[in-house]
Amino acid sequence: MKGNFGRDHHGGCFTWWLAGAGVKAGYSHGETDDFSYTIVKDGVHIHDLNATLLYMLGIDHERLTFKYQGRDFRLTDVHGTVVKSILA
């Protein structure tokens, strides 16, 4: 069901704190509402976050693509774009 985010553990958003590995120091990306329940600015999809983390580890997530039963698979599914704005 669209708009149903489970049992209300995190609403429609979550927070990660990153340091080092080429992340901009003191940079904050994205914004939630006053109750930290919904994303209101610059949300990042989990596929993009995973692609960015792999990039910071020196791994090109697109090179990890493999075919299984006629479908392409990779750690970021078949999506994911590195979020360059958080990188130094």
Topology readout:
Blueprint: E1 31-32, E2 39-41, H1 46-56, E3 66-68, E4 71-73, E5 75-78
Antiparallel strand pairs: 1-2, 3-4
Folded structure, characterized:
With 88 residues, this protein is of the alpha+beta class. Helix content is 12%, strand content 17%. It is built from one helix and five strands. The strands form two sheets. A two-stranded antiparallel ribbon has the order 1-2. The chain starts with 30 loop residues before the first strand and ends in a 10-residue tail after the last strand. 7% of the residues are buried.
Could you give the order of strands across the largest sheet? Answer: 1-2
Average predicted confidence as pLDDT: 83
Beta-strand portion reads 15-25%
What is the 3D form? flat
- Termini separation comes to 38 Å
Question: Mind summarizing the main beta sheet?
Answer: 2 strands, antiparallel
Radius of gyration: 15 Å
Please trace the helix and strand order, writing H or E for each element: EEHEEE
Indicate the percent of residues in helices: 10-25%
